Amino acid sequence: MNTFVLKLIAQRLALGLLLLLAVSVLIFVGTQLLPGDVAQSILGQSATPEAVENLRRELGLDQPAWARYFDWLGGILQGDLGTALSNRQDIGQSLWGRAGNTLFLAFWTAVVAVPLAILLGLVAVRYQSRWPDRVISGTTLTAISLPEFFIGYLLIYVFAVKFSWFPSVSTVHSGMSLGERLHAIALPAATLTLVILAHMMRMTRAAILNVMQSPYIETAELKGLGTFRIIARHAFPNAIAPVVNVVMLNLAFLIVGVVVVEVIFVYPGMGQYLIDHVSKRDVPVVQAVGLIFAAVYIGLNMLADIIAIVTNPRLRHPK
Amino acid sequence: MADTLLDIRNLTIEATAYPPGEAPQEITIVNGVSLTLERGKVLGLIGESGAGKSTIGLSPAGYGRGGIRLSGEVWVNGRDILQGSPKALRQLRGKEVCYVAQSAAAAFNPAHTLMEQVIETTLLHGLATRKEAEARAVELFKQLGLPDPENFGSRYPHQVSGGQLQRAMTAMALCPEPDLIIFDEPTTALDVTTQIDVLAAIKHAIKTTGVGALYITHDLAVVAQVADDILVLRQGDKVEMGSAAQIIESPQEPYTQALVSVRSIDHTPKAPTDTPILSVENVSAAYSNSGNNVLDGISMDLSAGQTLAIVGESGSGKSTLARVITGLLPPNKGQVSFQSQPLPGTLGARNKETLRELQMIYQMADVAMNPRHTVETIIGRPLTFYFGLKGKARRARVIELLDEIELGEGFIDRYPAELSGGQKQRVCIARALAAKPKLIICDEVTSALDPLVADGILKLLLRLQAQENVAYLFITHDLATVKAIADSIAVMHRGKVVRYGERDNVLSPPFDDYTQKLLASVPQMKLGWLEEALTTHTA
């Protein structure tokens, strides 16, 4: 590791933090623009104007927006995500349990989906335009074209109702062992795998096919290497950067975009938590979750950048 | 017959071509060629592009680019490899037959160290342990004159120079101790001064290891230095085969004679006049992202209707000078004057008349033309832009210009893809000429062309110069071209002019060290030139 690479990475980290700050402003401004008033919605339509005014003062809503922004930001920097308006509970406490569940599901889905997608991509290149390629491309494309709820219910119908292998409701709680938890999330994980597989597989395939046009692939062929060795050893290392980018986008989706799957399998994740509180106009919760989602997106994309930098021999070993 | 390594009998190679807008056509690339190569000998395959030399050269590896079909017999070590399974071919490649590509910079995988790539096949075919293979690789690095052979292998391809990569590629081919190596234009992409060292290293390695070789090139002077026998090819047919001495000294066929005696131009240089059309005074320039000056205090003059050749290797700054003169890169010091008027440094500050009088022709005619435009649009664009010609008048002028460049009216509706390399360059010349310029900057305009085609282009340029009184700033790395066309010469090296003056003065002794080296490195069409040049090199 040399100073040049470290400098590039430090640059990316700094940019990421700056971006996160900008996003926090956007989230705050966005939630201010939402129609309706929290106090009004808590008290209901029949509340007297005096009662609404009192509640507003109590919640600090009479302060100017910038003061509330810095108040909010200061709290977050100290690890305080604020208090939910709807039930007066600490957001941090309710959120961390949810976030843990979401990360648990995302992690195990990724453990299955990412290697599978890359392997299928490699196989598709190996048998390009022949039946394995067609089968892989066709099935993954079908899977991505079907809506998540359809795949979810289809899996429930087959594996929960017909064969009774897995539960249809993925309840997890702190008393469960790892094995029990994995059993519980099998179906949502499978659904998510089918949803993200095609995207990563196709990118792997396209990126490697692009590299396969390079003269050094001809060199490898003339060295008498087998096709799979050429793909895995000579083509794939040069296709990592685009593949990593797509993998990271999909990982981000696994964390921030799984609300439909959570609803189908009644899984206690962050998505459901967010939707519940949007309908209650609980602005602090929406802000907190929004900021966490943004942090996940920025963090993962930054990681993709850093991996691309570290795997590039031209940057790692300058002249 | 016991020591026959390679025996190609009646090899025919065909492919399906897909011309734009027409039905697919069957074309024959190689038409029933036979050849034999004894163990430990070197056979040169020579011809112009489209002669089929690379296609024949790759056949002993059982390899065909882009879906071509081989028929006939290719016997390597007593087996007809065209009958072998893909698995048998993999056993052959990298073990009995190895390959050295033209551009080693592109042929090495950027993701792995050189050592990993050099010993890969040796390990794969189980010919040695990793330790033995690495020791052998280091030995080969030493033999090929690579710097710091012990540690050379731990570097990545982008960390070493082009000439070193070409040698590393030769080491890669030699490492599994094959019987046959295919050298596919291994020195064509290198500067002359680098070429001579690589050529010597390759020749030395072939001699010490006793490996057989097919040496593919378009440069007869180069192949004469390394080959025992030479096979001359033209458009897929065998023209003539014989010993190197016989081909060079007494070629039988007219085509071979033309190849040997190429550069038929006899140009008498003109003396410079007092008022130059272009004057470069003490110009320095740098690309903004690096502080180093790419050009350092350059001065030279060019008289109207004459040719000033800028000679230098890659990195000498000759193309940067062209960018400064055309206004693409403002100089940070010095002044360029055109017709005794100072030229503004940037393109935006120049008026249309100056732009018109200063035109440019590029090395790669392919990418210098819009592939979706017809020849009429390409040549007609400057006519409309500078002279407002439209419709019939414009078409008539385009036809005139096409006659000037010896193509004629029949080409007017063609697209660039329907032209050969030489024809494309002619269209680019016509486009430059359409603006009626006073000065044309020619940037390596013949470098990508075959010698005979290049010869035609140079003759055309000379004729047009006499006719239109246009001056050329002729940028090239090829000294033979310089001799053929220049009135004055500037030799550039690392951003400086090391020698400048009238042609005959520059090319006559006493020389400075660099010009001496440059001149001595140009391959000459005679046997034993390499050895001679190397002794004067070291002397």
Automatic annotation (TrEMBL), chain A:
It holds the Pfam family BPD_transp_1_N. Keywords: Cell membrane, Membrane, Transmembrane, Transmembrane helix, Transport. It is found in: Cell membrane. CDD domains: TM_PBP2. Residues 99-304 form the ABC transmembrane type-1 domain. Signal peptide: none annotated. It comes from the Bacteria. The keyword Aminoacyl-tRNA synthetase does not apply. The keyword DNA damage does not apply. It is a multi-pass membrane protein. PROSITE patterns: ABC_TM1. The chain crosses the membrane at residues 12-34, 103-123, 135-161, 181-200, 239-265, 285-310. Belongs to the binding-protein-dependent transport system permease family. This is ABC transporter permease.
Automatic annotation (TrEMBL), chain B:
This is ABC transporter ATP-binding protein. It comes from the Bacteria. InterPro entries: AAA+_ATPase, ABC_transp_ATP-bind, ABC_transporter-like_ATP-bd, ABC_transporter-like_CS, Oligopep_ABC_C, P-loop_NTPase. Belongs to the ABC transporter superfamily. PROSITE patterns: ABC_TRANSPORTER_1, ABC_TRANSPORTER_2. Keywords: ATP-binding, Nucleotide-binding, Transport. Residues 8-260, 278-519 form the ABC transporter domain. The keyword Methyltransferase does not apply. One of its GO terms (molecular function) is ATP binding. It comes from Vreelandella lutescens.
